[in-house]
Amino acid sequence: MWLCGFVLKIFLSNTLAYNLDITNAIVFTTPQNLEGRRNSYFGYATALYTSSKNVSAVLIGAPRANISKIQSVLEPGTIYMCLLNNVCKEWIVDKSKDEIHQNRNNSWIGAVVLSENNRINSKILVCAPRWKYIIGTYWYMNGMCYWTTATNLESFEKDAEKMSLISINANQTTLWNNIWLYDFGIGQLGFSADISSANKLGLNVVLGSPGIFNWKGSAVLLTESTSGHRQIIIPNNKNTVPDFFDYLGYSTTSGFYFSKQERLFASGSPRGNDMKGYVIIYSFPEYSGERINISNTLNGYQYGEYFGATLASCDLNNDDKDDLIVGAPLWTRDMDEGRVYIFMAWENNNFMKDQEIDGDVSGGRFGSSITCLGDIDYDGYNDIMIGAPYEGDSGAIYLYNSNKNGVLKCSQKILGSEFSPNIRGFGISISKPLDINNDKYLDIAVGAYLSEQVVLLPSKPVVSITVDLVYPTKTLSRDSKFFSIHICTIYEGVYAPKNLNIIRNLEIDPLYGRAMYLTNNTSNFICILPTTLKISERQCELFKIHLKNNIQNVIDPISISVVVDFNNTTQKSNKSSNIFHRSSVVINKLNSKTKDVIQLPFLLECGSDDICNSDLRISLRTDLKSNNTYIIGSSSNLKLIIDIHNNGEPAYQTQVHISIPNPLSLASIPPACMESSWTNKYILQVICDVGNPLTNATNETMILELDTSKVRFDVKSLELYANITTQSEEINDLNKNYTMTIYFDIDVDIAIAGKAQDNVYSYSQKDEKDSQNIRFKHIYEVQKFGTSPIYEAVLMIEIPTYWKNKDYNIELISINQTIAHMDGNILKLKINDLDHCKNCQTSTKKIVDKFIDEFDMNNKSVDIHTKTEIKSEENFTNTEKLVKNTPLENRILFINCSDPMIVCKQLECKLIPFTSSLSVTQLIITLDFKLSNIPSFMLENKNIILFVSKGIVNITQPPNVIQGSTNKPDTTIITTKFQGSPINERVAGWIVVLSIFLGIILFILITLGLIKLGFFHRKKKAQLEALIAVSNENNPKILETTSSEVPDQE
Q1: Listed ranges 268-272, 579-583, 586-590, 908-912; the one with the highest mean pLDDT
Q2: Domain Integrin alpha second immunoglobulin-like, which positions (predicted)?
Q3: Whole-number Cα distances in Å, 377 to 413, 727, 788, 840, 1025
Q4: SS3 280
Q5: How far apart are CA 175 and CA 783, in angstroms?
Q6: Which of 130, 391, 550, 660 is deepest in the core (most CB within 10 A)?
Q7: 417 near 394, Cβ under 8 Å?
């Protein structure tokens, strides 16, 4: 029956949420009496089970419960098997009475419950991480896991097999640097767990053990083949990445991150990395006692966020590679909102952070649990569920659906209070999904441990529905009395019902009321039209619409819209049965077209033939320059400019259809445009209305802003396509389509610079044996240039450390401390040995050239080619005579990695993504020069020591970036000079003797020459004496002479 009239639109409540059905949920409550006991944490862990006879159950862990049949043990924890008729039965996994070697008090049986369900031989894993082993008077919290194969419900009446993975009689403690530490003694095996397939040949069971080796933490691997053969691998992580109290193994997962042929494992360490947390991705060794092989390390971003507390792995974007989902439930904006990080497998076996999802409620701890649900809505993409057990008073869970880009969007939020006003801690655990009601849709169980409840949520079948309004004649004549339209509807869905009752809400010209639908002799502008559809069959129905007389407004087109919905056909669950009823159907609105609108224009100014003959032209351009090339990272958006022109009669209902290829998306569009749908996984369709009518000689320009943030470096070019359509008649087919190519390039460079804290240090050669170490620093800085981002770079520093000797190596330099940081984040370094690396450093000659250019040589010429290479103690001794009285340049002792006699260390540091050109990485290396270790023969006739380190930086992401001659330097060296006291050069004895002899000969020759010249025969003296004598005789007075000169007598 059709209902029409002036009524409001009807939107049914079942379309407001997505396909988890809260109406038909089952709530399980702990069967234990609350009086006189603590909370049992019923619901702390959950798992689903179904047998080959379609008998299903929910397995619920209660790690603080008492076991009814073992009263002597205090709160060991237990498991409950709850049928779908709400009857729960206790499953005692360990009925042993051995109280001599084990202590099960507070062992937390049921802290982990996992199932690998195949309906025939399902594997069930239960762990008790606080189980203790007794040796004498000592208790060791080794942890214990239990393993069983369930073929039917009777399997849960038997004991489970203990998984004694650790030789608990040994290795409880270990001696480390003369200190006794716990080895496996506080291992807490089974704190986390993951079950995965082993190449279809069996199962991998990974058990997190965060307390191993003084809480460094580790993981243990158990493999079981289909034939039942087992292998246990316990790696040795004492000297690997974890530090004490890192809690590695707090969480664990696995996936095919880079290749379908190699499963890798991931474990979280929420307290590592200076309390920022980290996650390692690794493979197990072939045998126990060997180290794990770490391929990647993902570091947390905020202190105390507990990065890596939860982990999950699934393919979110259908690239056949699993993505890694990392929870940080203590991430804080105000207080413990929580955050979830999505890491996508990238090139060269690296991960790239693709998305961050933040919790919105303070104290909610969003990300405390994460579960991959598979494709729960059958849209072709996997979905995930995230728990926030402390949100509000009850807790909450969030359903996220993925798409072709791997971008998660929240489609449903469920609060625990929707099931019970007293529910608490809802979302602490989310089971792996399993179809337990045989409707081909996956169901989940969610734990609410603080109120001791578990909620079983079925999922609803999902359909995609499409509705179209079809008007064959396209236009209306001003003389028309009525017109006809078709409403065509079709629905499809995986495992959807064969028939679907729908309602079509038809709305006719709501603004102007110029048309109506006549039924039962009444005119109506809004009608509710019910019908029944068959799956995958398109149904079209004709409706006759009447026009009013004397319509004055013929400029505005008549608008007709239809919205399709359906009635909720939900039936109540049969509570007496163990299989609850199929849930109602829900619409996938992302893949559906539930509304259609058409605009019917009146014919105007189209000639006497009443036919509009238009001639439309379209072209595309962008705001890019230089050959339409976009530099990745230069801006987040680019403008797509659409030019439209009409050379004919008015064009009605003109539309432009633009095809935008992935990974481009829309940043903003004009009001006249709308995002239509993805025609396939890679093309987005946008439809724009252009004038009604678009008249002759009219130029229209529309601008779409395209989001380029998802464009990666492997994209070289993309083609955009546009075409123009109209309800008018086109007089030609030219220029109706336009294709434009956008090219993509990168502009990226990286530079390294280095300096020494002090360039010159002094030392005394006399006291060299008693001298202390000289501490000095080399500082390297790395900076990004260019507009494109750098996702990863590697910095390598080469440092000479030892001199090779015959019997042992002489330590010249020790690395005291290394500090690397970038944008406030501490970076981790890896130190490698470089025994002898050809061309590792700049040649010695280049170092000498640079040094002599800077050193004051008193303007003396220097011949550096006379330098003699010293390779051993014998060479020093044999060349002693050669280096005496040598020029200054040969008094230099060189310490660098180009010398084959030098042993070097290589510091390797992976640099985190450079967010901007202001991001600078600084590495400070504190070194100790062991001057006292240098043998005297090495410093014979040498008072200058040059120490050289070298830094190299390479861009690894984006790949294949070549540093050309025009780029910034990616290599640099730092030189430090150690200046000793001056050396007194010795003079040969024969030179001294010869000099004295020659001096005596010269003196004799000069004396003989003077004698021969009469130098010693003085006439004037005799004449003076004679004159004085005459004067004394003539005058007795004393004469005062003023001159010794007396004129010669003729």
Answers
A1: 268-272
A2: 606-736
A3: 15, 38, 38, 57, 143
A4: strand
A5: 45
A6: 391
A7: yes
* Residues, the chain: 1050
- Sign of the four-CA dihedral 984, 988, 994, 997: positive
Decide which of 448 and 223 is more confident.
Answer: 448
Evaluate if residue 382 carries a pLDDT over 80.
Answer: yes
Amino acid type, 59: L
Give dist(CA 426, CA 395) in Å, integer.
4
Cα-based angle 4, 9, 14 (whole degrees, multiple of 5):
120
Asked if residue 29 has pLDDT above 50, the reply is yes
Is 190:250 a contact under the CB 8 Å cutoff? no
pLDDT value of residue 951? 94
Count of beta carbons in the 10 Å neighbourhood of residue 119: 15
Residues 6+ apart with CB under 8 A from 1005: none
CA distances from 991 to 985, 986, 988, 994 (A): 14, 11, 6, 5
Q: How confident is the model at residue 13 (pLDDT cuts 50, 70, 90)?
A: very low
**Is 441 within 8 Å of 461 (Cβ atoms)?**
yes
Report yes or no: 250 and 269 within 8 Å, Cβ to Cβ: yes
* Residues in a beta bridge with 456: 26, 445
Residue 807 CB burial class (10 angstroms; 0-12, 13-18, ≥19):
exposed
CA angle 139/142/145 to nearest 5° reads 130
* Single-letter amino acid, residue 911: L
Of the candidates 661, 656, 666, which has an alpha carbon nearest to the alpha carbon of residue 690? 656
* Span 564-602, pLDDT tens digits: 987 654 334 444 344 454 557 888 888 889 999 998 888
pLDDT the model gives residue 338: 96
Other C-beta atoms closer than 10 Å to the C-beta of 250 total: 26
Burial (Cβ within 10 Å: 0-12, 13-18, ≥19) of residue 42: buried
Tokens found for residue 726: 């109209």
The torsion defined by the Cα of 60, 63, 68 and 69, in degrees rounded to 10, comes to: 100
Say how far apart CA 910 and CA 953 lie, in whole Å.
Answer: 10
Q: What is the CA radius of gyration of the chain?
A: 45
Please answer whether residues 594 and 586 qualify as being in contact, where contact means their C-beta atoms are separated by less than 8 angstroms. Answer: no
Give how far the C-alpha of residue 842 lies from the chain's centroid of Cα atoms, to the nearest Å.
Answer: 36
Under 8 Å between Cβ of 50 and 433: no
Distance CA(360)–CA(410), nearest Å, equals: 13
Contact, 557 vs 512, CB < 8 A?
A: no
Residue 819 has a pLDDT of 92
- Structure tokens that stand for 94 in this block: 């360990």
Q: Grade residue 517 by pLDDT with cuts at 50, 70 and 90.
A: confident
| Cα(475)–Cα(599) distance, integer angstroms | 9
Average pLDDT over residues 660-687: 83
Q: What does the pLDDT look like over 688-716, one tens digit per residue?
A: 988 777 888 778 899 999 998 888 888 88
Q: What is the dihedral of CA 1037, 1039, 1040, 1043, to 10 degrees?
A: 180
Please report the domains of the chain, with CATH numbers, ordered by start residue: 34-367 (2.130.10.130), 462-569+585-600 (2.60.40.1460), 613-745 (2.60.40.1510), 749-833+888-980 (2.60.40.1530)
Q: Is the pTM of this model over 0.70?
A: no
Residue 760's CB: how many other CB atoms inside 10 A?
A: 11
CA dist 643 → 110, 533, 574, 703 (Å): 67, 43, 62, 9
Rounded to whole angstroms, the Cα distance separating 272 from 246 reads 4
Tokens for 508, please give them: 């006719």
Confidence class of residue 200 from pLDDT cuts 50, 70 and 90?
low
Could you tell me the two tokens for 792? 């990863």
> For residue 326, what are the contacts with CB-CB under 8 A and spacing of at least 6?
268, 279, 298, 307, 308, 310, 311, 340, 341, 343
Q: How far apart are the first and last CA of the chain?
A: 173
pLDDT of 1014 over the 80 cut: no
